[in-house]
Amino acid sequence: MSERANITLETVRKLPAESIVWDAKVRGFGARRQKGDAIAYVLFYRTKDGRQRWQTIGKHGSPWTPDLARAEARRILGEVVGGGDPAGEKAEARKAATVAELCDSYLEAASAGRILTRGRAKKASTLLVDKSNITNHVKPLLGGLKVGAVTRRDIERFQDAVTAGETAAASCGPRGGGRLTGGQGAATRTMGLLGAVFQFAVKRSMRADNPVRGVERHADGRRERRASADEYAALGQALRTMPATVWPVAIAAAHFLAVTGWRRGEMLALKWSEVDLAGRTARLGDTKTGASTRPLSNAACDVLRSIPRMGELVFPASRRDNQAMAGFHKVWLAIARRAALPADVTPHVLRHSFASVAADLGFSELTIAALIGHKLGSITSRYSHHADAVLLAAADAVAKRIEEQLGYAEPAGVVVEADFTARRA
Q1: Of 117, 174, 245, 415, most Cβ neighbours within 10 A?
Q2: pLDDT, tens only, 314-333
Q3: For the domain bounded by 99-203, which CATH number is listed?
């Protein structure tokens, strides 16, 4: 039926199947019965730009009665008069991207080099960390929400949940074997990533604001930890007495980190083509701060000389010469256990300790930055292809002090020979 009538309970009860009755009081408001017994209250309207819209208000029955449905129809029509389009907005919301889909788009754009950090595309190692944080933290907690529906309160709950360890997992990483525990550090790092993801959404006009902005975060948790003299001594003893079953290149890698202050990723990616032992210089083409020229102490050079050349990488995996050493973390944990080091003594602590020893010896911030490749020291890579005498002397002084604390009996820079071939698995 297409006639208009005052929609009442009696009208609804008598409504035939596959028919609709339009209300005489509110134009566009109607009750419709399809093939079954269910009856739905509907509204038909035109937007200001002439688009026709159908909107279902609700099914007849609690809470919807003819009077309540009619009142809701009037409210919706009021929005339409003001330029709104409730049915269109509802349809768009159903089609809107979820946070999980947004994250996938972000990672795709970042992998293609379209997301810049400090003017440069993200490195592959950074992308792996971003993907891990999205997979382990963001998607489980926020992935199902629509991008436009996320509120500041949602972000605050997210931070609290990661801090409390709600996203903890038994294993993580491409090969497992680790434990994802959450905590303040994980929450802070993931919040930084989440802010970038939602800023990406703003630029794509997926929402008008960034809900992460303004949310109070935990302190960044930067470690000011440095190895003590006793810890250095225990580490040196462990390096010299590791079992023959442990890959010697990994042991040499830990020693190299201690006497250079390099980042672990820089060490693992180091190629023989980047090393000039005669000039005691390493020219790294791609680090966290870009290209970098590093002076090599005599101690560092002797560690490198002790390693046979088995491929392009200086510190390769034990099974494949040209494959990166993915198991270094496990070897480090074995070294740390043998030395009975506290859990917070990590390869990064060796880096901070190197800088601290350099500061103890009176070297300037610029010199320390050049030694370990901080951004401040990147000026050395712009104008020089070889480390100068001043930097080499500084590198030797710091490495010598560290070697003394490690307890090597031979003069600084001398490394005990090892049979690398016999230990290859």
Answers
A1: 415
A2: 999 987 667 889 899 999 99
A3: 1.10.150
> In this structure, what token pair is assigned to residue 214?
């303004």
Instruction: Give the start-to-end residue ranges of the domains of the chain.
Output: 4-94, 99-203, 229-423
Contacts of 303 (CB under 8 A, 6+ apart): 252, 255, 256, 259, 415
Task: Give the highest mean pLDDT range of 15-19, 168-172, 221-225.
Answer: 15-19
Structure tokens at 251: 């042991």
Q: Which two tokens stand for residue 406?
A: 């490690």
- Give me the architecture of the 229-423 domain, per CATH: Orthogonal Bundle (1.10)
Cα–Cα distance for residue pair 316/319, rounded to 1 Å? 8
What architecture is the 4-94 domain classified under in CATH? Answer: 2-Layer Sandwich (3.30)
How long, in residues, is the chain?
Answer: 425
User: Where does residue 120 rank: exposed (0-12), middle (13-18), buried (19+ CB within 10 A)?
Assistant: exposed
CA 351, CA 282: separation in Å to the nearest integer? 17
The helix or strand, by DSSP H or E, that contains position 214, with its residue range, turns out to be none
The SS3 call for residue 418 is: coil
- Rounded to two decimals, the pTM is 0.57
